[in-house]
Amino acid sequence: MVGFTIPAEVSTILLDIEGTTTPIAFVKDILFPYIKNNIKDYLRTHWEDEECQEDVGLLRKQAEEDSHIHGVVPIPMESRDGEEEIERVIQAVVDNVHWQMSSDRKTMALKQLQGHMWRAAYEKGCVKGEFFADVVPAVRKWRERGMKVYVYSSGSVEAQKLLFGNSTEGDILELLDGHFDTRIGSKVDSESYQRIASSIGCSTNNILFLTDVTREADAAEEVDVHVAIVIRPGNAGLTDDEKSYYRLITSFNELFLPSST
Questions:
Q1: So where are the chain's domains?
Q2: 151 membership: H or E segment, kind and range
Q3: In this predicted structure, what is the pLDDT of residue 71?
Q4: DSSP symbol at 28
Q5: pTM of the model
Q6: Is the Cβ–Cβ distance between 150 and 12 less than 8 Å?
Q7: CATH architecture classification, 4-22+129-256
Q8: Crossing angle (nearest 10°) for helices 83-102 and 32-46
């Protein structure tokens, strides 16, 4: 039988987003294309804003750090006044962002700009966060049993809050106790999960991490975090060995709460 009873020592559920709570198609077919299709207009509209200039500065610094990588697009400083010069720099930012996204980079500079663009999209009602049907009822049930629920995603904390705060289920941020992104460490680095446990104030074996990525599961298991692999439509397939090794669920409904005493 797929599914299992949550170990009695678990007091915290740690959730991945893409492919776990939210369809990969939402991220790949809605969120990412929104950035690629709207970034030039966004930059033109917000160019003089302090926030936008900070985003561009971080992207420029990242491009300098990436100068040794094939295909990187440098972002020049504005060397003179005028709309033509601004357009030249904007085009470089657009090309750099497209290159990073095509290369599946997960830099904080890219994530910060994306988060600000998605914020504008959510606020205008252009985008609403999507969740699998089993997610919100399960999280409500866990909370009723006194469990803590946190999110750990490669997307920025701001992007996470936008997703949960502007969803097809309404504003469900109140269901979450906190958020972690890659500022706490890479999701494939076991030390990240130790830092999360310390931040929450629990032991690593008090956490159950739900993810669709086996490398993340392996990193969490190295420090005694409980793990389940979530199988959803559109997720990467698992090998036979992986299927026999990991605890697997296809729905949060397949996580059974331990009997209360």
A1: 4-22+129-256, 28-123
A2: strand 148-152
A3: 94
A4: I
A5: 0.86
A6: yes
A7: 3-Layer(aba) Sandwich (3.40)
A8: 160
